[in-house]
Amino acid sequence: MQTLNSGRQGSSPNIPLIIKEMKLKERINVDYITAFKEKNVIAKSAISGLKAKILEAEKAGPAGTELSDGELFKILLSNVKQRKQSIEAFTNAGRSDLVEQELSELSIIDIYLPKMMTDDEIESALLEMVKSMTDEGNKQKVMGMLMGGFNKKYPGLADGKTLKQIVEKITN
Question: Which domain holds residue 88?
Fold first, then answer.
């Protein structure tokens, strides 16, 4: 068991610290504090940007609203997409210094993303969903229902392009 040594006067140096399964937001906050203490500029910058996006999303909702992990994953995926676009733009502009910084920060953000499903796992999940569908009349409607249902059941676990290709393969 880990212990917490806070170093404050009057506190015991070996207070047991019980670590439960942390919510994503808690994990981001803990990692930010760790990066700050370790003077890890790259991690601090990447996580600080995430914290700002999270705070912005929370302020956009009703007062006192805390985002669920699913909503936080959407913010993470949006941030990853934005950074990949920045990397492409910086590469085209010949700014290798900025490309390197974005890649470093992207690797920090990737830590918080769930493991992506393999093509076989996606196909298997989609085939299960097809079995439960009754409306086979309109191919576009079925494709839309499959993609929407998959994204609802497995948020952020598959790349959109890969998902679309597999859905097209299944519905043909």
Answer: 23-110
Kindly report the pTM of this predicted structure.
Answer: 0.59
Do 103 and 156 belong to one domain? no
- DSSP code per residue over the chain: --EE----TT--TTEE-------HHHHHHHHHHHHHHTT-HHHHHHHHHHHHHHHHHHHHSSTT----HHHHHHHHHHHHHHHHHHHHHHHHTT-HHHHHHHHHHHHHHHTTSPPPPPHHHHHHHHHHHHHH----S-HHHHHHHHHHHHHHHSTTSS-HHHHHHHHHHHH-
Angle (deg, nearest 10), helices 69-92 and 41-60 = 130
Tokens of 150: 């998959």
Within this chain, do residues 105 and 148 fall inside the same structural domain, yes or no? no
> Do 124 and 106 fall within a single domain?
no
Give the residue from 63, 88, 110 where a domain finishes. Answer: 110
Residues 41 and 80 in one domain: yes
Tens-digit pLDDT profile for residues 107-145: 998 888 878 788 888 888 887 877 666 555 566 777 888
> Looking at the 3D structure of the chain, how many domains does it have?
2
